[in-house]
């Protein structure tokens, strides 16, 4: 027997010894998944019977089990029923206005010609961010009201570059003076 072959056998045996616990764990996992598959099959076969007999014994069947997996987003029942939250401290309301929704539960953005669905305070996501920035810099126009009617507010074009920095400085001066 050559030294090379003896060395290979020694390495192979060492690898076998090191991998044995891993192989045992994998074998137990495979047995466990087979048991889980069998239990899942039994549960699927008994589901129709449980739906019929369960209410007789007072068992509550979860809504998710009845309908299967639901899609992403809000559940269909909660989508149309927006409840009015109590007014926050200071008289400001948060979120959507609870009235005047369209047939699918959405309102159009308050900006004329936008056409996107409103998200918060009657504005789409982009125009709401613009509203926040205008409030933050004390440049909010008077017709940009919270919860304005759809397609009722004229959009404004904000200055950019040097003109924007001058407008911000003027707004800051007006805010400090007033």
Mean pLDDT: 77
Amino-to-carboxy terminus distance: 99 Å
Please compute the radius of gyration using only Cα atoms.
32 Å
Number of strands: 0
Proportion of β residues?
under 5%
Give the low-pLDDT segments: 84-88
**Helical content class:** 40-55%
**Secondary-structure element order, as H and E?**
HHHHH
* Count of separate DSSP helical elements: 5
Q: How would the global form be characterised? A: elongated
Largest sheet: none
Q: Structural class, from secondary structure content?
A: mainly alpha
Biased composition (Basic and acidic residues): 137-158
Protein name: Cell wall protein
Organism: Myxococcus xanthus
Biased composition (Low complexity): 164-178
Task: Describe what you observe in this structure.
By secondary structure, the chain is mostly helical. Among the domains are: 48 residues; 73 residues, no CATH class. It is built from five helices and no strands. The N and C termini lie far apart (99 Å). About 3% of the residues have low confidence.
List keywords for this structure.
Cell wall protein; 178 residues
Strand and helix layout:
Blueprint: H1 3-53, H2 63-67, H3 76-80, H4 125-136, H5 162-177
Provide a brief overview of the structure.
The protein is mainly alpha-helical.
């Amino acid at each position: 027997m050559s030294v090379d072959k003896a060395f290979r056998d020694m390495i192979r045996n060492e690898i076998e010894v090191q991998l044995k616990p891993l192989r045992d764990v994998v074998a137990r996992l495979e047995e466990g998944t087979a048991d889980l598959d069998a239990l899942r099959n039994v549960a699927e076969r008994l589901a129709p019977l449980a739906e019929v007999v369960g209410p007789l014994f007072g068992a509550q069947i979860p809504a998710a089990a009845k309908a299967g997996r639901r899609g992403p987003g809000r559940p269909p029942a909660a989508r149309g029923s927006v409840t009015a939250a109590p007014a926050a401290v200071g008289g400001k309301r948060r979120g959507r206005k609870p009235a005047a929704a369209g047939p699918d539960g959405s309102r159009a953005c308050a900006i004329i010609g936008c056409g996107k669905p409103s998200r918060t305070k009657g504005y789409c996501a982009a125009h709401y961010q613009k509203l926040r920035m205008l409030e933050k810099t004390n440049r909010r126009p008077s017709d940009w009201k919270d919860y304005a009617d759809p397609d009722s507010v004229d959009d404004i074009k904000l200055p950019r570059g040097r003109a924007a920095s001058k407008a911000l400085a003027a707004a800051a001066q007006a805010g400090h003076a007033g």
